[in-house]
Design brief:
- 68% of the residues lie in helices and 0% in strands.
- It has 439 residues and is mainly alpha-helical.
- It has a domain at 324-435: Leucine-rich Repeat Variant (Alpha Horseshoe), CATH 1.25.10.10.
- The longest helix has 28 residues, at 312-339.
- Helix 17 (278-284) runs antiparallel to helix 18 and helix 17 runs antiparallel to helix 19.
- It has helices spanning 2-28, 35-48, 54-65, 73-84, 89-102, 104-111, 121-133, 140-148, 152-155, 158-172, 180-188, 191-204, 209-214, 221-231, 246-253, 259-271, 278-284, 290-304, 312-339, 342-352, 359-368, 375-388, 394-399, 406-420, 431-435.
- The chain starts with a helix and ends with a helix.
- It is built from 25 helices and no strands.
Length: 439
């Protein structure tokens, strides 16, 4: 340490060391230090240090990093050191030093000028690298700011997009991707950045991706279409995959002026089991755009588990028949599935599996049959839940992947594959890992 101090003294002179000591004493006695004065002194000190003497720069930053971060001299010092340092490992090492001493918030403040409109492309590249390499919670808004201040033509360059993508991916691994900050950031982001961010969330956050993406629904119509398009390609890994309010956003999209929005909303309603919107899907069978009508027909077939011609008359009759069956037979069929004799339970479970439109009421009752002593009943319950295709059955089916009966395990695995859209693992017990939450 003494040798390093002599090296600093050699480069910055005795006067600068006096300033360092004074600042340290002021910190120890809790006297106020003017950040502007400290910054001016430190910048002069840094200017006096030869570029090749990195240790002397480290000494300056390390000494002043011990000061109260609220007074900001250490932050200003670090920024001066970084701004004067060439790109590469030395700059990264300086930032890491500040990170260890002052924490993530200080580093974000340190990097904020690199997101400004007057920042150079090199500085923005360094910002993306730092966000990518350091564990910085709260970095997403800063990355978005940098993208907002970037010339749109620059965003089309592959190396810029790669840097931005790496920074967004790092931010997505933090809680930013699930908080309200994500929506605020996306609303401000340029279109190209929005698309990149949606891709990153879908890839980096596969477990919570559906919820994270669906939380963005309702921002604006063009973004809604992008979000739904990605949601339709993602497997279901959670019992409640959509964020609060996403159902209502999908319903609003059914009235989108753009036919693409109506088509995607119809498919998403079927994918996520929003069965209450079946009457609205019947109306869309007569949509002026043929693609919307086909999507509504496909969605109705998925929700109903049956196949009819795409006419409003036939599907209206189906809805009426489902309502009638529900009113007259649902309760007694559920009772038979719970309490009946063996063959009565098997018949009831088979019957219930033919009514996915009523899955919300049926799944909890069928799920109880998974714990029956009779393996045939447990197997029939798995088959019925697979036919109902409700994400709310995932957790109950997972337990049956470790059943003592091999036929039950096979039925549970097939049901999980049908509901989630994931390929069945080689060992049924691996479903637990495949569907496990990230946290």
């Amino acid at each position: 340490m003494a040798r390093r101090r002599r090296r600093v003294a050699r480069h910055v002179g005795a006067a600068a060391l006096v300033v360092l000591v004074a600042l340290g004493r002021a910190h120890a006695s809790e006297r106020q230090v003017d950040p502007a004065d400290a910054a001016a002194v430190v910048l002069e000190m840094i200017a006096a240090v030869p570029e090749d003497d990195v240790e002397a720069r480290y000494e300056i930053v390390e000494r002043l990093s011990a000061l109260d971060p609220e007074r900001r001299p250490a932050l200003l010092v670090a920024y001066g050191a970084v701004a004067g340092d060439p790109p590469g490992m030395r700059r990264r090492a300086l930032v890491e030093m500040v990170f260890k001493r002052l924490g993530a918030a200080a580093v974000l403040e340190l990097l904020r000028p690199y997101a400004a409109a007057d920042a150079t492309p090199t500085q923005r590249a360094q910002l993306y690298l730092m966000v990518r390499d350091l564990d910085l919670p709260g970095a997403l808004p800063l990355v978005i700011d940098a993208a907002l201040n970037t010339d749109p033509a620059q965003l089309e360059r592959p190396f810029v997009l790669r840097g931005l993508r790496g920074a967004l991916a790092a931010a997505a691994r933090r809680d930013d991707v699930r908080g309200p900050g994500l929506r605020a950031a996306v609303e401000r982001a340029p279109r190209r950045v929005q698309e990149t961010l949606l891709d990153v969330i879908a890839e980096v956050d596969p477990t919570f991706g559906t919820r994270s993406l669906s939380a963005l629904l309702g921002v604006e119509s063009a973004l809604d279409r992008d979000v739904v398009g990605r949601l339709l390609r993602m497997p279901l890994r959670r019992e409640r995959p959509l964020a609060a309010g996403a159902d209502e956003a999908l319903v609003r999209m059914l009235a989108d002026a753009d036919p693409a929005g109506r088509r995607l909303a119809a498919l998403a309603i079927a994918r996520f089991g929003v069965a209450a919107q079946a009457p609205r899907l019947v109306e869309l069978l007569a949509d002026p755009d043929p693609a919307v009508g086909r999507a509504a027909h496909r969605a109705l077939e998925s929700l109903s588990g049956t196949h009819l011609q795409p006419t409003q008359e036939l599907w209206t009759a189906w809805l009426e028949a489902e309502d009638t069956w529900s009113a007259q037979h649902l309760d007694e069929t559920l009772t038979a599935a719970r309490e009946g004799e063996r063959f009565a339970r098997l018949r009831a479970l088979t019957t219930l599996g033919r009514h996915p439109y009523l899955a919300e009421a049926i799944v909890p009752q069928v799920g109880a049959a998974l714990n029956a002593e009779d393996a045939a009943v447990r197997r029939a319950a798995c088959v019925a839940l697979g036919a109902l295709r409700s994400p709310t059955a995932l957790r109950a089916l997972l337990e049956r992947t470790e059943d003592a009966d091999a036929t039950v395990v096979a039925a549970a695995s097939a049901a999980l594959e049908r509901i989630s859209g994931l390929d069945a693992p080689k060992r049924a017990a691996d479903w637990v890992t495949l569907l496990a939450e990230r946290r």
